[in-house]
Amino acid sequence: MPKLDDQISTLQQKLTQLKLRQERLDARKRAVSALRERKAATRRKILVGGIVLAKVEHGEIDHEQFRGWLDQALTRPEDRVLFGLPVSESGPGAPSDAGG
User: Distances in Å between the alpha carbon of 32 and those of 21, 25, 43?
Assistant: First the structure.
């Protein structure tokens, strides 16, 4: 019986190795898929942004309304600077002093 036990042990080790290999392949597929989706999402945002900016430039979207959207939505100072919006501690996203 020792030979049969050795064979079983060897096959169990091989099975464990193959399962680990499959898990790694599955993880890689998920990572590649996630990266592909992030790239697609970024591309969509760039395209939509280009369309919106073109419509603002051509007067199809009111410039002041667009600026208001940006002023409400952008909270990071470096983002606000890109669009010439004021950056202050009392601006959007800043902590309020009203609470005490």
Answer: 17, 11, 17
Q: Give the pLDDT of the chain (100 residues) as one tens digit per residue.
A: 679 999 999 999 999 999 999 999 999 999 999 999 999 999 999 999 999 999 999 999 999 999 999 999 999 999 999 999 999 765 554 544 444 3
Q: Which two tokens stand for residue 86?
A: 């004021």
What is the domain partition of the chain in residue ranges?
A: 2-82
- Spell out the residues 6+ positions from residue 97 whose beta carbon is closer than 8 angstroms to its own: 90
The 3-state DSSP class for residue 65 equals helix
Tokens of 27: 């993880």
Q: Which two tokens stand for residue 13?
A: 């080790």
